[in-house]
Amino acid sequence: MMIKESIGDRLLKVAFYVIIALFSIYCLIPFWAVVASSFASEASILRDGYTFWPKEFSLDAYKLIFQDITIYRAYGVTSIVTIGGTIISMILTSALSYAISVKSMKYRNHIAFYVYFTMLFHGGLVASYLLISKYLDMKDTIWVLIIPSLLSAWNMFLLRNFFASIDDSIAESAKIDGANDAYILFRIILPISLPALATIGLFYSLAYWNKWFDAVLYISDKNLYPLQYLIQRIMNNLDYVNQISADVSIPNFIAPTMTVRLATTVVTIGPIIFLYPFLQKYFVRGLMVGAVKG
Hints:
Order of helices and strands: HHHHHHHHHHHHHH
Low-confidence stretches: 287-294
Mean pLDDT: 81
Largest sheet: none
Strand content: under 5%
Oligomer: single chain
Structural class: mainly alpha
Shape: flat
């Protein structure tokens, strides 16, 4: 039976839609200003400032960024690191989180304390540098961007708490039917944990996508530069060019430092931003499941 909405309910619904629309516009305005200004000429940016529509359309900033194959190679390295690292990290994190969430597992508190201990104390930058570069010999390999970040203690505890909130009777009934722990994890627990997996997967993806400090320490081969590190080098080179042009006073020369910064922002966040709409349905589904349980 259809429930007829009252005028007050309709007005309230309209008010919510208006507020959400205004807030969305408020969030999109800075992003749109960055995108529009990245297509403006350097001279118009210096003369008119940032605008919502480029007064002098120019692709110089993007031509400078995409002028050689290095940027495409960096995209490939970052994509491999992000996809491969996220998949392996999710497998390891899920397995360890589920293991220490099972109350019947021996020494699960000792393992949890060992992982928790690494959140409080670690060897420091010098010790990790010597370990990775001298003893593990991973310097100038793509593995140095993946292996040291395979397991995050914080993400592991988040996922363990979610697994611990699942009713034990589900796993117990599966065991009565003859299922082992691996079957219970991959066929029962993980499918009903998609909201938590989507959240942790998003954390890992963003961490791998924004990885640049490891490249500063361990990568000297330009074929292995990740995207973020390459962008940083481009920015440093632009600053250097700007200083040189100011010292020698080259006539009519304007280094595109402002527009390149904006174009760099667009290039950097472009692909990873599409993860949010893809994962949003799992967040919404998780909220609905929680509402039914409540």
